Task: structure prediction
Amino acid sequence: MPKFTYLKDQSGNIIKFGPYNTMDEALKASQDYYQKNLKGTGSSWSDSSETDDKYPSSKSISSGTVSDSGTTSTTPTQTTTTNRTPGITSTNPNDYLIDEFGNITLKSTGQHVTENDAKELGLFNNISAIPKATVNYTGEGATGLQPGQPIKPEGIDQTDWNSVPVGMQTVLSAVNDFIKAQMEAGKKVPVVLTPDVLSSLWTEAQNDPVIQKYYGDLLRVGDSDFKNTISNLQQDYATLTSQYQRQFTQEDKDLADAEAAAGRVYSGFRKQAEDKLNAQQSDIIESTNKTAQRAAREAASAYEKRFGTSALQNAGIPTIAGSTYTPYGNIAGTLAQEKLADIEKKYQSLQKDKLLKMGATQ
Result:
């Protein structure tokens, strides 16, 4: 169906634009002509018509004579356009609504009025006369700007609700309506835990009394066993070295008596015998020291790997046979890793329970 638009000039003559294939083309042609030839002369647009019934070219009207603009369906090459939104034509403030954010809409259709529309229609000059409106979500099917207030979701204290800014109230009300609609439709509504909630759940998992007692008991038992092991090694070493000292004293005496009886009190043979005995005794002492040191080192190393460097320092770094154990350093220990894994499991369990309480489905 061909499309037409019309202009009325300052003399009252009606100028027809068309036919065009679309109304947008017809509007653009008349707007371009108005901007180029008639703007500022008192001319005005007439209502557009989808057919040629409103102002037939053969008919005279009281306000002037209809004349063809000479335009065709081809858009003029030299144009000056306006950005007026189609359908936004009224200059009456009562035909619009303005929300708390300054957004203006056409009351009858809900169309958004652009800044350019408001300027051309003179709405900015009488902004206070435009009726106020807020976004009102009233459940399924509610759209656009309507007079009224956002609805408080269930579960929110009225005092708390009144303290929330209106803009945030509209958001909360909209989210609440969306969730209700989704649930009524049988859809799964995504439930998200906030960072604050997740942080609280992690702290709860870390302080879980069952986990704390279990790993606390393991540390106490391990600490006690380690200290007992080192203490026993030190006592055994002291006892053994004391026995060797008595043994060496007796051996030295027996050698001296034997050499004296043989008449070798100051002979070279006696000196050789004494050196040999001293060497044997030194080997025994060195072997005893190394055995004790190795046992202490193995006990301390195993403890550090299991419970960590910090726990070893708290328990006491062992010294035996003149040698002090050197820690690996900065080791958390396998026990700490096991504890962290159990805390993670508890954390995941707490999240699941929390989501179920908030209405999430498994």
User: Anything to note?
Assistant: Residues 45-81, 135-148 have pLDDT under 50 and may be disordered. The first strand starts at residue 3 and ends at 8.
